[in-house]
Specification:
448 residues, alpha/beta, UDP-n-acetylglucosamine1-carboxyvinyl-transferase, Chain, 13 helices, 25% strand, globular, binds shikimate-3-phosphate
């Protein structure tokens, strides 16, 4: 999983992008498919699983707990589950590489088991806060051994005094919500999670699909109350993973920014908890149409067609952030080409992603001649023509790398990112796929 040396690359000014492409499966649903398959009785079959480094790390973890996981090499995977109380003690530390979702959800799953689990990760993951998952686990009775201030590496062990809790999630985080619910699977009684703002609901939908008793109820002031009955009997399922809207985002923005483009991204997940970017781009004047909209496995999917568009700046409402949290870096790139100011606020969670994305985006914009203002939880971008020609530091963050490569396709001069190796954590084949639409990439000027 560790990449030996950085691989710089430049996005080069490109002619129109045209064509129809399929993108890899959704990362959130892929992690959960492997986890819930491992917890279920019987054989779960998954097609369209995202075969990226982050997901392979989760597959490795589920094998370490006793599940048998196989691929036919053509995109179909099987998970032979161990049952919801059948996890076995792993023999060694579990390495999650760059995968925040993988490690945080697995901490929930394993933290209430009566054995020790040790988790490690790469430099980026080892800097990220884990207290947000450890706090509720401690309340449930989990013993936590963390020397580095609630960061990886750390060890969890379930104790004899575990009990379900009612937990109000203090930040907008689907990972924290999910970790608490998954911890509750192991415990008798009802685990309750109160979400002040709605975040992606894949855990709730999929746990129900696997047979758990889980209810959601609207509380006052926009909050959601989720109750899970512990110790469910989960039954294996057949899962089709839809295309990842957070990966589609890069192709969509590239198609909008490069003049004369006409790009269709097929089979994209359109769950409303994930479509904030489409709403925002439309407000900016983007020509986006959804074709062939349908339901697959309880999720809306469709083909997203975009044509090169002149964009204008907008103010993005802060309460939209959870539905597009991973899309702000590429939205900031779109904003750099839009006429006028784009104001993005409510972005505190961007500080604790694979990198401090707010700072990484602001520095990347500045390096390419774009005027922007970074606040503690906000970013204002003044758009227009983008000079480009800058060198961008990615800080082991796949979405920073992809966003600025896209900038290079539409800027006056190439945009260089210091490393593209990390793109494999979420979007293997990104450069080839865009090249197939007509995008140009080149060896980097900073390679020497
Ligand atoms: C995810 C939740 C989000 C998102 C991440 C995937 C998930 O993280 O950024 O890429 O699958 O639950 P937070 O829960 O930290 O917002």
């Amino acid at each position: 999983m560790a990449h030996a040396s950085p691989q710089p690359l430049s996005g080069l000014p490109s002619g129109p992008l045209t064509g129809r492409v399929s993108i890899p499966g959704d990362k959130s649903i892929s992690h959960r498919s492997l986890m819930f398959g491992a917890l279920a009785e019987g054989t779960t079959r998954i097609s369209g699983l995202l075969e990226s480094d982050d997901i392979l790390a989760t597959a490795g973890a589920m094998r370490a707990y006793g599940a048998a996981i196989d691929s036919d090499g053509r995109g179909s995977w099987t998970v032979q589950g161990v049952g919801s109380r059948g996890f076995a003690e792993p023999e060694r530390a579990i390495d999650f590489g760059n995968a925040g979702t993988g490690v945080r959800l697995t901490m929930g799953l394993a933290g209430t088991c009566a054995f020790a689990s040790t988790f490690v990760g790469d430099a980026s993951l080892s800097r990220r806060p884990m207290g947000r998952v450890l706090d509720p686990l401690r309340q449930m009775g989990t013993e936590v051994i963390a020397r580095g201030g609630d960061r990886l590496p750390l060890t969890l062990r379930g104790t004899a005094s575990m009990q379900p809790i009612s937990y109000r999630v203090p930040m907008a985080s689907a990972q924290v919500k999910s970790a608490v619910l998954l911890a509750g699977i192991n415990l008798p009684g009802v685990t309750t999670v109160i979400e002040p703002v709605a975040t992606r609901d894949h855990t709730e939908r999929m746990l129900r699909g696997f047979g758990a008793e889980l209810e959601t109820e609207a509380g006052g002031g926009g909050e959601t109350i989720i109750r899970l009955q512990g110790r469910p009997n989960l039954k294996a399922q057949d899962i089709i993973v839809p295309g990842d809207p957070s990966s589609a985002a890069f192709l969509i923005v590239a198609g909008l920014l490069v003049e004369g483009s006409d790009v269709t991204v097929a089979d994209v997940l359109l769950n409303p908890a994930r479509t904030g970017l489409l709403t925002t781009l439309r407000e900016m004047g983007a020509d986006i149409t959804i074709e062939n909209e349908r339901l697959t496995g309880g999720e809306a999917i469709g083909d997203v067609r975009v044509r090169g568009s002149r964009l204008k700046g907008v103010t993005v409402p802060p309460n939209r952030a959870p539905s597009m949290i991973d899309e702000y870096p590429v939205l900031a790139v779109a904003a750099a080409f839009a006429e006028g100011e784009t104001v993005m606020d409510g972005l505190e969670e961007l500080r604790v992603k694979e990198s401090d994305r707010l700072a990484a985006v602001a520095r990347g914009l500045e390096a390419n001649g774009v005027v922007c203002r970074e606040g503690p939880a906000s970013l204002t971008v003044t758009g227009g023509k983008v000079r480009g020609g800058g060198h961008v530091t990615t800080h082991l963050d796949h979405r920073i790398a992809m966003s600025f490569l896209v900038m290079g396709l539409a800027a006056e001069k190439p945009v260089t990112v210091d490393d593209v190796a990390m793109i494999a954590t979420s979007f293997p084949g990104f450069v080839d796929l865009l090249s197939g639409l007509g995008a140009r990439f080149g060896a980097s000027a900073v390679a020497a």
